[in-house]
Design goal:
Mean pLDDT: 86
Order of helices and strands: HHHHEEHHHH
Number of strands: 2
Helix content: 55-70%
Shape: globular
Radius of gyration: 20 Å
Distance between the termini: 39 Å
Number of domains: 1
Low-confidence stretches: 1-18
Length: 244
């Protein structure tokens, strides 16, 4: 009997014996992010069942009510473990440093995006109000090291940017571009990341004081996004002009 060689479902135009990042690996990472996002959304809904019988809303009971303080450590541990899982999967998926960084950015961006997708799907079929109701709905994003808050469109914007960066890195490496960030790149990206972080923790004092956040400093997020994207484009610009 003749052996039939099955062709891959998706074939990357940059696949090579040297270990280029094939699109099947990218698809596998996408499925992993999709599954992890559902687990995350389900855990959050379970937490709401304990804390918010009528659906999530500020003030944040988890950090302001004494009877729930024991949950803070567990929740922070869950958040840290999620990052460890994403990092571990990225390291396993990539064969080069660039591929590992791109894998982590891709995983994190898709995971965060699908998290809100699944959260809305789950709440559609629960006794909770649909969440998020709109891109402007406020949410608690993270607890490490202080509460991060913001309207849903803010983390979604950052998530989309991370996926964009991942695709740019993989494209550049596929074109055999030598990607070596210099100190200036890291300083610029560090400034942009600090601005984004600042926008998310802007209301941490309000949250810890049992308040309800209402103002998000978009004037920090948008310039930071522009700075970060510009720096990344300059980093990989040579690959777009390299002939195959």
């Amino acid at each position: 009997m003749n052996k039939v060689r099955l062709r891959p479902i998706l074939r990357s135009p940059y696949s090579s014996p040297s270990g280029a990042f094939g699109s099947r690996r990218l698809l596998a990472l996408g499925f992993f992010a999709l599954g992890m996002a559902y687990v995350e959304a389900a855990c959050v809904v379970y937490l709401w069942e304990i804390l918010y019988s009528e659906g999530f809303k500020f003030p944040l009971l988890l950090v302001v009510e004494k009877q729930y303080k024991w949950l803070v450590g567990a929740e922070m541990g869950r958040e840290f473990s999620t990052l460890v899982m994403l990092l571990g999967c990225a390291v396993a998926a990539g064969r080069t440093r660039v591929q590992r960084v791109a894998s982590f950015l891709f995983l994190f961006g898709l995971w965060d995006t699908f998290y809100y997708f699944w959260l809305r799907v789950i709440t559609q079929f629960s006794h909770f109000p649909v969440f998020p109701e709109s891109p402007g709905t406020w949410d608690i994003l993270f607890l490490i090291p202080v509460p991060w808050t913001g309207p849903v469109y803010a983390p979604m914007t950052v998530a989309a940017t991370m996926v964009l960066f991942a695709v740019m890195l993989l494209f550049a490496e596929g074109r055999s571009a030598h990607i070596k960030p210099d100190l200036r790149f890291w300083v610029i990206e560090g400034v942009a990341a600090t601005m984004i972080f600042g926008s998310f923790v802007w209301n941490c004092g309000v949250v810890l004081a049992k308040g309800i956040p209402s103002f998000y400093p978009w004037w920090l997020l948008l310039p930071a996004e522009l700075i970060a994207i510009t720096a990344f484009v300059y980093l990989v610009r040579d690959c777009f002009y390299r002939r195959t």
